[in-house]
Amino acid sequence: MQAKETLFADLVQGRAQQFQVPLYQRTYSWTEKQLRQLWTDILEQAELLESGEKASTHFLGSVVLAPSPQNEATFPRWLVVDGQQRLTTLSLALAAIRDHIADGEPDEAERIDEEYLINKRKNGSDRFRLLPTQADRAQFAAYVRGPLSEQAADGAVAAAYGFFRRKLVEAADPAAPQDVLRIEEAITSRLTLVAVTAERADNVHRIFESLNNTGLKLSQADLLRNYLFMRLPTRGERIYETYWLPLQDSLSNDELEQLMWLQLVLDGDDRVRRQDLYAAQQQRFERGEVSEAEIETYIKELYRRGALFRRLLHPEVEPNAAVRAHLHRLDTWQAQVTYPALMLLLDRRERRDLNSADTARAMSYIESFLIRRMMCRVPTNNLNRIFQAVPGQLPLDMPVADGLHQLLSAENRFWPDDDELREKVRTAPFYKFGRGHQRKMVLQRLEESYEHPEPVDFATAQLTIEHVMPQSPGDEWLRMLSEDVVDGESAKDLHSRLQHTLGNLTLTAVNAELSNHPFERKQGLLQGSHLEMNRRIATTERWGADEIRARADELADRAFALWPAPLRGVGRAERSRDWNLAHQVLAALPHGTWTSYGDLAAFIGSGAQAVGNHLANTPGVANAYRVLTSEGKVSEGFRWTPQDVGGDVRARLSADGVRFTANGAADPAQRLSADELASLVGEADGEEDAAQRAPESQGEETRADRFYAQLVAENSDERRFFRRLATHDSPETVEAVRALFAHWEELGGSIHWVGNDTMSNAFLALSETIAPSRWISPMSFMPGSGWAGSAHVAFQILAVQEPFTDHALRAEFLRRLNELEGVDLQERKPGPDPRFELSVLEKDRNRELLVETLTWFRDRWESRGTD
After folding, report:
1. Is the peptide bond before 830 cis (omega within 30 degrees of 0)?
2. Interior CA angle at 660 toward 659 and 663, to 5°?
3. What backbone torsions phi and psi does residue 564 show, to the nearest 5 degrees?
4. How far is the C-alpha of 194 from the C-alpha of 450, rounded, in Å?
5. Quick one: CA torsion of 541, 544, 545, 546, rounded to 10 degrees?
6. Residue 202 neighbours by CB distance under 10 Å
7. Which residues contact 535 (CB under 8 A, 6 or more apart)?
8. Which H helix or E strand runs over 445?
9. Lowest mean pLDDT: which of 396-405, 467-476, 642-651, 808-817?
10. What are 751's strand-pairing partners?
11. CA 307 to CA 21: how far, in whole Å?
12. What average pLDDT does range 858-866 have in this prediction?
């Protein structure tokens, strides 16, 4: 290669030649932000020319050129390997100048045209000195041929040309006129470029990869497209026009990348991650000498599967009603994680390996798998691994639908059977599971199962989830519940245990009217509902524990019919996920808080007695002694396990900041409800997106793992936190969090790390100088598990800690946090503490604002009692 500094005029002027932007390049994409900066630089150089100053020129960037396969001795043609955005922009600016002066100075306009824009004696596409990539070519050519003043055009090329036309009109303002030809001279002779010219033997693609390894990264789809069309020297134009351009027009770049990843998965690569798509496909092609015919076959197959993929994105285009219904529901569920299995089914149907009826049956297993797991609170973080493995693991000795049923029923898939589903419907806090739209869809399907002769149009009905027994019960509700309590359980504990279960939930369009009214008042409103499930509730004389359980059993029976069960005999692993969840939330209890056996039981969908037995017999459970009776007393049955450090429980609680009332009970203001416990561990809001977060190989250590392990090797909890954060967030987000933590420590704060094998938290803490065991935390940070990491703002805990018992201070804290771009927090009680995604901290200004807010928080804490 040869490199030299040059000017735009020297690069393009002279004999006839052409700069070709190859098919593999991305389309023109400069926005007004880049255009404004360039225009500022051009005007600055024009003013220097006007003043006669001999200041240095302005460096614009590099242009990498390689001989085109169509090169001729009498007509040099160059491939623009890098720099097409700069060359296209400067050409459009000169076309705008030409058109701006055409009426007043036609000779100058003709000179600009012939020197920089066209090859005067050539015809067709050879007439243009710059020939953009196919998608931009027609519009660019139209502007080079002449102004399109009467034709409204869209796209980045049109926007850039229009930008320069507007700026030239502004430059002609009589109040401050600027010489347009000086502007032309600034563009052509004051903006320098480094032209790197490759020889024919150089590997242009390697050069291109290297150049795009820094700065603005190309997407995996961009890189793979580049690779493909660089290897189609003779067939590229036809394949681009016939297959690639229609495919590219029908999918966004992100969707196209997802399709390319799915094609690898369908072809048997069940380990590839989406971020490794390009390298994986390149490796497959380079196992042998790839021919143009093989690349054409790959692109044709991609084009064919693109039509199938669009049915996942837009289910309404699926012709079969039964299949379409399943695709609609999975789309509503936001089940992108299932795309490998769904694409497999559509692909096999197109190949006539199964018909539409069996395709729909197979999709019912996928739908059931997702919904039963959600209803039974099975963690979602391995869904991507499960569904990505489907194409490679599907049994070959049985029909496709039956094979999928068997595969999903395997013991390590955790597909809940009817017994487990009934138990969870009766006891688990369904209202706290999954995402809101998923809970609503479950209730919608249950309503549809009644097959009402005049069904509700759910697409237009404004329905929300309603608690029949309200979340904030009045005295009448509590009196009724007191009739149902057993084994010394209080009415409030019974309410906490049943309020969020499926048997107590319904759909309604009159949520506000139902409110917290007694059941007799709600009956009238439910009786007038168009939903059959509401009419059935209205016929019940009372609404207590027995009625809620009876309705739960009825809904469980309907769920069995709607969502098929796994096959028996394939194997079922025993799971301890609910107790793991209990251990997680206890480990995350903030300083100065406690919870009850009933609250913890309601959180995990168990019973208070079972919780007590488990804690009494399980060693090593963090903060087990901070689980008290509903009255705030240490349970008579509490005992330390032999492996735990014992001691006086009340003394331990006092050291943890738990206050006691005059009668010896823990302060009820410091008690965390089931809902508040859920907010501590950031309950999962849905399954992992397989297209973005595919699994790593067992035992494989990523670059992020190694990097963060090296950074924080001295602290295992800190290492665990950052490794987990790096798994699902960008390196920019991870570095932003590290920077914020450093600022917090500069303010005199500390980081409290809490973690175990299944979760990890970092609490920002301020401790008292004379009593370091007493501390306050404005917020905690939690890596995601299949979703983005988030910051949780502890408003409800702050409400019982001075000086933030003053609501005005909490409101000011909230206002300051909401100044961060992308943050919109609302204080709600009851309800989980508000949170925001950690990615907002990538912006420098957001970090600055948060540091200012935390400084304000520290100052308020340190000045308490002195104001």
Report:
1. yes
2. 170
3. -55, 150
4. 72
5. -10
6. 14
7. 526, 527, 529
8. helix 436-448
9. 642-651
10. 764
11. 29
12. 76
Supply the Cα-derived Rg of the chain in whole angstroms.
Answer: 33
- At 605, list the tokens: 């969908």
* Alpha-helix runs per DSSP H in 191-291: 204-211, 220-230, 236-239, 245-250, 253-266, 277-285
The pair phi, psi for residue 81, each rounded to 5°, is -70, -35
Number of C-beta neighbours around residue 761 at 10 A: 22
Q: What is the DSSP string of 820-841?
A: STT------SSSPPPEEEGGGG
Q: How far, in Å, CA of 839 to CA of 702, rounded?
A: 21
Q: Is the peptide bond before 803 cis (omega within 30 degrees of 0)?
A: yes
Reduced to 3 states, what is the DSSP secondary structure of residue 120? coil
The one-character DSSP state at 113 is: I
* Inter-residue contact 596 to 560 (CB < 8 Å): no
Residue type, 354: L
Rounded distance between C-alpha atoms, residue 572 and residue 758, angstroms: 22
User: What is the rounded distance in angstroms from the CA atom of residue 54 to the CA atom of residue 727?
Assistant: 53
SS3 245: helix
Residue 800 vs residue 392, higher pLDDT? 392
C-alpha dist (Å) from residue 30 to 35, 77, 156, 158, 209: 7, 24, 7, 11, 20
**Full DSSP string of 500-533:** TSGGGEEEES-HHHHTT--HHHHHHHHHT-S-HH
Burial class (CB in 10 A: 0-12, 13-18, 19+), 669: middle
pLDDT tens sequence across 79-133:
888 889 999 999 999 999 999 999 899 999 999 999 999 998 898 889 999 999 8
The residue assigned the tokens 């999962």 is: 684
Which tokens in the block code for residue 528?
């007038």
Indicate if the pLDDT at residue 689 is higher than 50.
no
* Residue 166: other Cβ atoms inside 10 A: 11
Longest dimension (CA), the chain: 101
Per the listing, tokens 């807010």 go with: 853
What are the angstrom distances between the C-alpha of 355 and each of 307, 345, 349?
A: 18, 10, 6
Report how far apart, in Å, the C-alpha atoms of 688 and of each of 30, 385, 480, 727, 771 are.
Answer: 33, 10, 42, 12, 43
Q: What pTM was estimated for this model as a whole?
A: 0.61
**Contact (Cβ atoms closer than 8 angstroms) between residue 570 and residue 410:** yes
**∠ at Cα 532 (527, 534), nearest 5°?**
45
Report the SS3 class of residue 493.
Answer: helix
Report the phi/psi class of residue 23: left, alpha or beta, with left for phi > 0 and alpha for psi in -120 to 50.
alpha
- 325, two tokens: 């219904």
The torsion of the CA quartet 735, 740, 745, 751, rounded to 10 degrees, works out to: -80
Q: What angle do CA 76, 234, 22 make, to 5 degrees?
A: 55
CA 726, CA 722: separation in Å to the nearest integer?
6
Residues recorded for the chain? 867
- Residue written as token pair 């009826």: 357
Which amino acid type is present at position 590? P
Q: Is 71 helix (H, G, I), strand (E, B) or coil?
A: coil
Amino acid at 240: Y
Among 338, 217, 333, 341, smallest CA distance to 278 is for: 217
Q: To which residue do tokens 């609404």 refer?
A: 543
The string of pLDDT tens digits covering residues 253-300 is 889 999 999 999 998 777 788 888 888 888 778 766 678 888 999 999
Q: In angstroms, rounded to a whole number, what is the distance separating the alpha carbons of residues 410 and 309?
A: 27
What mean pLDDT is predicted for residues 821-843? 79
The confidence score (pLDDT) of residue 716 equals 57
Question: CA-to-CA distance for 861 and 747, rounded, in angstroms?
Answer: 12
| Burial category of 369 from C-beta neighbours within 10 Å (exposed 0-12, middle 13-18, buried 19 and up) | buried
Cβ atoms of 263 and 305 closer than 8 Å: yes
| Six token digits for residue 864 | 């308490």
- In angstroms, the CA 128 to CA 131 distance is 6
β-strands 760-767, 750-755: how paired? antiparallel
